[in-house]
Amino acid sequence: MNESEAMLHQLLNIGECMLSCGGEVNRVEDTLNRIGRAYGAVNMNVFVITSSIIVTMTMPDGNECTQARRIVSAGSTDFLKLERLNHLSRCYCAAPTPPEILQADFEKINCNLPRRIAVYLGSMLAAGSFAIFFGGTLADGFAGAFSAILICLLQDFLGPLCKNKISFNLMCAFIIGIIICLIGHLISFVHTDEIMIGDIMLLIPGIAMTNSIRDILVGDTISGIMRFIETLVWSGALAVGFMGAILLMGG
C-alpha cells in the first residue's frame, strides 16, 4: 500500500470514528475534504451516509485513489472524542504530517475511552434527576439511579453480544421494566411510571434524532431520512419492551 492509499485508509478511519461518536454527516464530509486537500490532493470527492463512506482522492500527478467503508456499528454519543478528532483535523490542516504520524495521533484518541465510573455516575444522576423532574419523589429518584446502574451493566455486558440496536433496546427495556415493576411491588411508596420515565431518558436516541433533522435541513436528505427512521424504530423497540414488562407484571 503506497502513501496515498495509506492516507486514504486513515481518512476512512477518522470518518468512521466521527460518525460513531455522533458527528453529523456534513461535519464528516467537510473534515475529510479539508484533511485530504491539506495532504496535497487537488480534488476530493467524499460521500457519507450513516451506513457508508466513499472517498476518492485525486493527486497532482493525476493518480486517483478510491476506498469505501461500510459502517456497521450503530455508534453512540461521545462529544469529547468528537472534539478531539476535530482538534486533530485542524492541527493536521495547519501543519500536515506523514500518514503514520496521523495514524498514531488518531489511535491515541480512539483508544482513550471514557472512564466507566464517570459513565455510571452520570447515568445515575441523569436517571434520578429526570425521575424527580417528571413528578417523582426522592425515593423515585434513588430507584431510578439504581436502575441506571443496571442499564449501564447491560450496555457493558449485553451490548457487545447484541450488535443489533433494535433487539438490544427491546431486551434492555424489557429487563429494566420488569426490575422496576418488581421494585414497585416490593416498595409501595415508589412510583414505577416516574422511575421508567427517568430510565427511558438514558436510552432514547434524542441526539441522533436531532442530528437527522439537521441533516435533512442542510440538504443531506438520504442520511437524514435513514437516521430518522432508525431512531423511530429504536424508540419503538424501547416502548414495546417497557409495555411488555408492564403487561407481564400486571401493571
Task: Report on this structure.
It is a single chain. With 251 residues, the chain is mainly alpha-helical. Helices cover 69% and strands 8% of the residues. It has 10 helices and 3 strands. The chain has helices at 3-20, 25-39, 79-94, 99-110, 116-133, 138-157, 165-186, 192-203, 206-217, 221-248; strands at residues 43-49, 52-58, 64-70. The protein has a 3-stranded antiparallel beta sheet. The protein is elongated and about 75 Å long. The termini are far apart.
Uncertain parts: none
User: Please, how many helices?
Assistant: 10
Series of H and E elements: HHEEEHHHHHHHH
Kindly name the structural category: mainly alpha
Task: Measure the end-to-end span.
Answer: 61 Å
Instruction: Compute the average pLDDT.
Output: 89
Largest sheet: 3 strands, antiparallel
Portion of residues within helices:
55-70%
User: What radius of gyration results from the CA coordinates?
Assistant: 22 Å
